Amino acid sequence: MALAKRIIPCLDVRDGRVVKGRRFTDLVDAGDPSQLARRYSDEGADELVFLDITASLEKRKILVKVVRSVAAEIDIPFTVGGGIRSQEDAEIVLHNGADKVSINTAAVENPKLVQRLSEIYGSQCIVVAIDAKKDSSKPSGYHVYTHSGTKPSGLDALEWARKVDRLGAGEILLTSIDMDGTKDGYDIELTRTIASSVSIPVIASGGAGTPEHIYRVLAEGGADAALAASIFHFNEYPIQTVKNFLRERGVLVRS
Description:
- The chain is α/β, with parallel strands linked by helices.
- It has one domain (6-248): Aldolase class I (TIM Barrel), CATH 3.20.20.70.
- Helices cover 33% and strands 27% of the residues.
- Helix 1 packs parallel to helix 2 (64-71) and helix 8 packs across helix 10 (239-248).
- The radius of gyration is 16 Å and the shape is globular.
- The protein starts with 5 loop residues before the first strand and ends in a 7-residue tail after the last helix.
């Protein structure tokens, strides 16, 4: 039986507030994390992702109090990332309400961390976030960036995705830096390239502007889940509107 596709709102958090930008810059305030989390849980989101977007850049720990306050408001799977650089960091987040941890910069800098966390907590608990930008010099055409999309890693996106799959990641959160915040649609080519080449679920991120965009990345891009922020934060398309649109087109989603 086919697995239901997941719709996942994302809380990009900076200084304790949810923000949203364009291509990782020009951030604007989008609300209180706890209030938004409760709304999304009530509206039928399948999961929630919380990313402390400047923790790695600022070389600091994640905002644990905010994580705890969000976790208290929801009863859906909760992924937390940003500034997680060690087993200790992951443990703190998991003990404060997260169901999964997302690692990005630390995974690139220390790939063995992916394997270690997977062995300790189980692969279902470990999400590797990959922020990719178009780059014709790379074999796949996409370059992996770290530190909130500011630092080129030298890694090819497809090669890195295959490696984290082998290391034991449970899923990949794949963000197109080029499309992030544009509302012009996901990078279907990027998503398809990665999703068709790994054995683990891929969450597509970056570019959602309409339900049609979400449909395309699931149907054409092969993503297992679609993550979105702007269209949900500002009530442009409520979650159930998106799910109804997908159902009408034959996509299996949860109620």
